[in-house]
Amino acid sequence: MTLPDELIRDDSTADTAPWWRQAVVYQIYPRSFADASGDGIGDIPGILSRADYLGSLGIDAVWLSPFYPSALADGGYDVADYRDVDPRLGTLDDFDAMVTALHERGLKVVVDIVPNHTSNLHAWFQEALAAGRGSAARDRYIFREGSGPDGAEPPTDWTAAFGGSAWERVEDGQWYLHSFAIEQPDLNWANPEVRADFVKTLRFWSDRGVDGFRIDVAHMLTKDLTEPLPSAAELADMPVDGSHPLLDRDDVHGVYAEWREVFDSYDPPRTAVAEAWVASDRVPLYASPTSLGQSFNFDLLVADFDAAQFRDIVTRNIALAARSGSSSTWVLSNHDVFRHATRYGLPVPPEDSAVPKRHGGGWLEAGADQGVLDRAAGERRARAATLFVLGLPGSAYLYQGEELGLHEVAEIPADQRQDPTFFRTHQEQFGRDGARVPLPWTASGPSFGFGDDGAHLPQPAWFAEYAVSVEDGDPDSTLSLYRRALALRHELQTAEDLEWIETGRADVLHFRRPNGWEVVTNFGTEPFALDAGEVLVSSGRSGSAGAVPGETTVWLSGH
Ligand code: NOJ
User: pTM of the full predicted structure?
Assistant: First the structure.
């Protein structure tokens, strides 16, 4: 298709702005992407072997979830060595070869930094255990005496994010803090050695050509642990306004100011995006150019497929990003949530329902009949939501497999589940394994082409329909839609503005970008009549002249 001249990159700022401002970043969960060694676990050579696929998508960057040595107590977010590759995933040479291959295809590389906690197998933690109370080695972590007459009770009643106490006792009777799994002891960010070591890690990967970093739980590093420690109830009553003892403290930006100097010492400057679960008005602090520069906006992960919710989220987040001079970010799926095709295919539980909403997943966990999931509707809405998001100003973060329209895998037997959430909630919550099942590359063969043997999480038979080999070349497939949209997005990209056009319908959103690129999403079921404009791409499989069908997004060349 030939695009009208006025639509082709009209605005010089879109070409000269830093690459990350409107990038499409594709998240790879390395252990589940492609397995070159045939041991059932995805690896770096696997990613290298799929470099052409990545290059064919039309993305700008790849973000790799942790690939570091790890005992996998939390899917790799329990890091035993920040400056190496897990031997099951390859070597540093493999990593370098992968970076080169991705760079050759014009793709940037972003890696995950996990600074709140290490693995309990990290050399520092092993040293802390051996060195005993009061040692310098223990001061790199958060050790305390227990409460109760003989210190046999944890220091406080705080709970960990995956359930259970946030404290674990060690042999000599002291307790250490772990905000997440037991195997993830929290670091002490008041310790200068801890600070210096992360600077070393950032330089290590920057020197190897990495272009940016995703910072895990960026709002949790610094803590005020002055005695007496507050109870969980007292903590819950404290405002999270920069002064809370554990969350979103103002002093965390002192850490990031130091990191900023590291990022800016490279040419081009290395980038960072914060995973910060904080109140909206605190987001700009993380997205500021003196801190991490950009922050995830997760609002769409908890929104229904609903016009009013989407419009509100877009308006609010564009304004928030403007406050720090950053660009907004859009995320529909990642490795921590139920895939959006499934979320949108499940009924929204009524307010008084016994089924917890939990991003839609409550239905599956409640053991609801699989029939409760409307796969086709979920995919239709997911395609419409994706095309809406890809038209927005700012950067979009995609999660591996969403380009295939993949659904969450609910049918994983209990004895094959891996996520600590499942075990620490006494199997009440499935957790995140269903979004981390290895990708189907072919419709048949061992592990659907993921590797030569099995897959570390079981793949259901229906994965065959979603295989890359099946979708490749099928013009109606979700993969083809992503490729078409991403190619067009490159052509159309313009300044980071958006103007809403009123539609007269509460279930239809319409916006225009500065060069006349328009996006219309019909969240309802009744077709929406279009009065003009050429349709450049549609999320719908069947066209309907002069109208946007229900649950469909179209991009228009404008009036
Ligand atoms: C956020 C990561 O996305 C998640 O997967 C991980 O479990 C926690 N941080 C702890 O590192």
Answer: 0.96
Structure tokens at 108: 């940037």
Contact in structure between 179 and 115 (CB atoms under 8 Å): no
**CA 143 to ligand 1 centroid distance, Å:** 22
- For a ligand 1 pocket test, name from 27, 77, 122, 184 the mutation site with the most ligand atoms within 8 angstroms of its C-beta: 77
3-state secondary structure of 397: strand
Cα 367 to Cα 97, 437, 558: the distances in Å are 45, 20, 47
Quote the distance between the C-alpha of residue 316 and its chain's center.
20
161 CA → ligand 1 middle, Å? 10
Pocket test for ligand 1, best of 162, 182, 216 (most atoms within 8 A of CB): 216
From the alpha carbon of 180, which atom of ligand 1 is closest? 10
Ligand 1 center to 33 CA (angstroms) = 18
Q: Which residue has the tokens 């406080």?
A: 156
65 CA from centroid of ligand 1 (Å): 10
Structure tokens at 315: 């308006």
User: What is the C-alpha separation between 207 and 263, in angstroms, rounded?
Assistant: 11
Q: Which residue has the tokens 């890091």?
A: 79
CA-to-CA distance for 295 and 311, rounded, in angstroms?
Answer: 20
Question: Cα 398 to the chain's mean position, in Å?
Answer: 8
* Beta strand 108-113 pairing with 212-215: parallel
If 0-12 CB within 10 Å is exposed, 13-18 middle and 19+ buried, where does residue 115 land? Answer: buried
In 3D space, the residue among 6, 24, 4 whose CA is nearest the CA of residue 392 turns out to be 24
Q: What is the 3-state secondary structure (H, E, C) of 330-383?
A: EECCCCCCCCHHHHCCCCCCCCCCCCCCHHHCHHHHCCCCHHHCCHHHHHHHHH
- Give pLDDT, residue 257: 98
Distance CA 120, CA 185 (A): 6
Atom of ligand 1 nearest to the CA of 74: 7
Ligand 1 and 160: CB distance under 6 A:
no
- How many angstroms is it from 239 CA to the middle of ligand 1? 24
Ligand 1 near 262 CB (within 6 A): no
Q: Facing residues of 63 across strands?
A: 27, 110
Q: What is the mean pLDDT of each run of 10 residues along the chain (559 residues)?
A: 58 73 98 98 98 98 98 97 98 98 98 98 98 98 96 97 95 98 98 98 98 98 97 98 98 98 98 96 96 96 95 97 96 96 86 65 65 91 98 98 96 92 85 95 97 96 98 96 98 97 98 97 97 91 85 89
Cα 65 vs. chain centroid, distance in angstroms? 9
Tokens of 98: 């992968």
Task: Say how far apart CA 217 and CA 113 lie, in whole Å.
Answer: 9
Closest CA to 85 of 103, 66, 113: 66
